[in-house]
Amino acid sequence: MEAARLLFEDMPQRNFFVWSSMISGHCKIGNVKEARAIFDRVPVRNLVNWNSLICGYSQNGFCEEALDAFGKMQNEGYEPDEVTVVGVLSACAQLSLLDVGKDVHKMICAKGMKLNEFVVNALVDMYAKCGDLTGARLVFERMTNKNNACWNSMISGFAVHGKTKEALEFFGRMEESNEKPDEITFLSVLSACVHGGLVEVGLEIFSKMERYGLSASIKHYGCLVDLLGRAGRIQDAYHLIKSMPMKPNDTVWGAFLGACRIHMDNDMVEQVVEDVCTSDSSVDSGNDPHYALLLNIYAGSGSWEKAGRVSMVMADRGLQKTSGRSSLMLENTEQFHI
To answer: Where are the PPR repeats (predicted)?
Structure first.
């Protein structure tokens, strides 16, 4: 973007494609403030410029700003097109603004906009994330060509809202279709299994990843640890952690410790403390994440005296405390708090 900026500033004249390229470019690297500054410099704006800003806002999580820009664009007399509504529907999905999303859907129908795969995917995603699974399914079933993103939106929507049976049903349908499940699909289905307490089904689904040529990430392992832990299979969850091809992070340990706390397995808590203390980056090195993890371990297990000692050491060394809980964030799914 620095090279683009130098070229941009040297241009004697700039058309709307050039302005939009700079706006989109800054948004792609997360520099929304600079993107807005470029947008404000556009001498004569058109729909392409507005779309670049609205979509850039949505892609970076500035959803209220995206909707505000959408309103201003309409006030200036510009008619939205398919690109506009995709950005706006994404903002509605992230903010769970179902009523606004429905209004956009009505507008799409009223204006006779082309229902290309991007618009339809955005509609399914909006309805699913806002909890209107009936609306999402109606749009989904009317699609002639269902791509990977659309399947994932449906499966994720069912998983997030505790519809385990439906999530597994759609996963089966996806396997029978021409679209292959990807990493996001498996995260969503494993999440559904956690909701439903379906341990054996979850283990079987996890094993399918290799058949599709997919490598399980630490998020997939963390979800499986959560599934086993909630079912009381503490030893199995621990053996899974120890056999992971990557080092467990605080999220994985947090899911495991949450299970230990629920099932009152204090011996396993002590084992986790020993594992953390004897890891390559030991607590003695003054590593902040390990101190924070130890604090959460002791607090979570009710060992307040030990937690107090760790907290004092952190304070003495000027280390920042973290919240006494861990969370597992799954793409396109919910956040589990432990």
So the answer is: 15-45, 46-80, 116-146, 147-181, 182-216
Both tokens assigned to 161: 């809202």
Query: Which ranges constitute the DSSP H helices of the chain?
Result: 2-10, 16-28, 32-41, 47-59, 63-75, 82-95, 98-110, 117-129, 133-142, 148-160, 164-176, 183-196, 199-211, 218-230, 234-243, 250-262, 266-277, 288-300, 304-316
Q: What is the number of residues in the chain?
A: 338
| 139: CB partners within 8 A, 6+ apart | 120, 123, 124, 127
For residue 50, what are its two tokens? 């507005």
The pair of three-digit structure tokens given for residue 128, joined into one six-digit string: 């699913």
**336 DSSP β-pair partners:** 328
CB 134 within 8 A of CB 166: no
The residue assigned the tokens 């995206």 is: 66
Nearest to 56 by CA among 31, 75, 81: 31
How many other C-beta atoms lie within 10 A of the C-beta of residue 325? 12
Q: What is the Cα–Cα distance from 227 to 187, expressed in whole angstroms?
A: 12
As given in the structure block, the two tokens for residue 237 are 């969850």
pTM listed for this prediction: 0.77
Three-state SS at 132: coil
Question: Residues of CATH 1.25.40.10 domain(s) within the chain?
Answer: 1-145
CA distance 239 to 217: 17
| Superfamily for domain range 1-145 | Tetratricopeptide repeat domain (1.25.40.10)
Q: 214-250: per-residue pLDDT in tens?
A: 999 999 999 999 999 999 898 999 999 989 999 888 7
Question: Dihedral (C-alpha) 93, 94, 95, 99: value to the nearest 10 degrees?
Answer: 0
Question: Which token pair is 15?
Answer: 């058309």
